[in-house]
Amino acid sequence: MKLFRITARHAVLTFFSAVWLVPIVWMLVTSFSVDNGPNIRSFFPQGWTLDQYAALLFGSSVVAHFPQWFMNTLTIATFNCIISSMFVLMVAYSMSCMRFRMRKPMMNIALIVNLFPGFLSMIAVYFIMKSIGMTNSNIGMIIVYSGGSGLGYLIAKGFFDTIPRSLLEAARIEGATEAKIFLRIVLPLSKPIIVYTIIGAFLVPWMDFLFANIMLNSGLSEKKTVAIGLYSMVSRDNRNTYFGQFCAGGVLVSIPISILFVIMQKFYIQGITDGAIKG
Predict the structure, then answer these.
(1) Sign (positive/negative) of CA torsion 254, 258, 260, 264?
(2) Residues 122-163 pLDDT 10s
(3) Which helix (H) or strand (E) holds 219?
(4) Taking phi first (over 0 means left), then psi (-120 to 50 degrees means alpha), and beta for anything else, what does residue 48 get?
(5) What's the CATH number for 61-275?
(6) Which of 18, 64, 97, 199 has the most CB atoms around it within 10 Å of its CB?
(7) Using CA atoms, how far apart are residues 200 and 194, in angstroms rounded to an integer?
(8) Cα angle for residues 216, 222, 223 (degrees, 5° grid)
């Protein structure tokens, strides 16, 4: 009976793993296909080539500007990563390690605001940014992504709650300011949650489609991010010409994130688990 349960469990897990992996494998093999359009005749391509990658990276198409899309997205993600991580960690420290009037009401308000989906504010954010001329620009996208990032402090606060209060009190008795305590005591003890925060802040603009689609509406291909640019390659007019390049772009976009997760996986998982210990 025990052997049957183990076999059934592994069979179910294998099935779901296959369902999850099949689209990824299909996109990978299609990126090496000689066909420019979707291959619906067979799972594997009729011929293998690197032409899709060469055309995507070095071609002169008026539709595909992948290197520029990649640089736009990388610029936005890098600056958002720095700014958002600073906001999140500083807010988390103030809510966890400091005591001041209105602290709990502010935490409750932040929690309530986080319950509302972010897309509810898209139209309002768009008109505000349009009124100050910040749409269709990398700076505007950085402001949109990082402006409210401090509200996502809860997991980092949970991690800071696990740091012994005696260390902080001893530093205060010795005359250390809150800035010194934060920079010299709390942050060196918080590498897992710092890595988790950095990766999360980097992934937001890297994977976002909705906000980018609203903010970057000039129609100029070179202004797009990777998500918007790749989506335009599979429109009704372009899919039969650029679908192979779309798959190649999907593979290239996944490489930096995959490398980042492989390197930082240990700290990322520990940041999630330790940050969930306390609220």
Answers:
(1) positive
(2) 888 889 888 988 888 899 899 989 888 888 888 888 888 888
(3) none
(4) beta
(5) 1.10.3720.10
(6) 64
(7) 10
(8) 20
